[in-house]
Amino acid sequence: MITIDYLISRLSCFDNKILSKETIDLLSTSIKLIEVEYDKSIAINEFKIHRKYLDKAGVKYFGINELIDMLMKISDEKILIINCHNESHVLKIFMDLNHNVIGVVGFEKRKRTPEEIEREMHNLRRK
């Protein structure tokens, strides 16, 4: 099982120091970790779509473009995704199966009213 301390030690080896600093700041808060083995090609497609929705919603995020580029460069078909959630942020750390960090994605959670959720669901049904 991966712990916060282990993630921080792995991120210290990560190439992109700006992302890892931002990530470590988020990891230092109280969070819940979920570890998932995932197919790389599915992750690439999902994040291309996810990026469009985050942009449309005006949500602040970091690391998606860099992650997509890195995933397309690696040969591994399976990756490890560590999902980290706290009250205000979602953080996803992507690793190969040897626990080398591939990329990091983070975004703010946005609290929505029931009316906003209903309006969004209505718009999705119309499409």
Radius of gyration: 15 Å
Approximate strand percentage: 25-35%
How many domains, in number, for the residues? 1
Note poorly predicted spans.
Answer: none
Give the distance, in angstroms, between the N- and C-terminal Cα atoms. 41 Å
For the sheet with most strands, the description reads: 5 strands, antiparallel
Care to count the β-strands?
Answer: 5
Provide the helix percentage.
Answer: 40-55%
Give a description of the structure.
The protein is α+β, with helices and mostly antiparallel strands. It has one domain. 47% of the residues lie in helices and 26% in strands. The chain has a 5-stranded antiparallel beta sheet with strand order 1-3-4-5-2, with helices on both faces. The longest helix is centred in the middle third of the chain and has 18 residues, at 40-57.
Overview in brief:
With 127 residues, the protein is an alpha+beta fold. Helix content is 47%, strand content 26%.
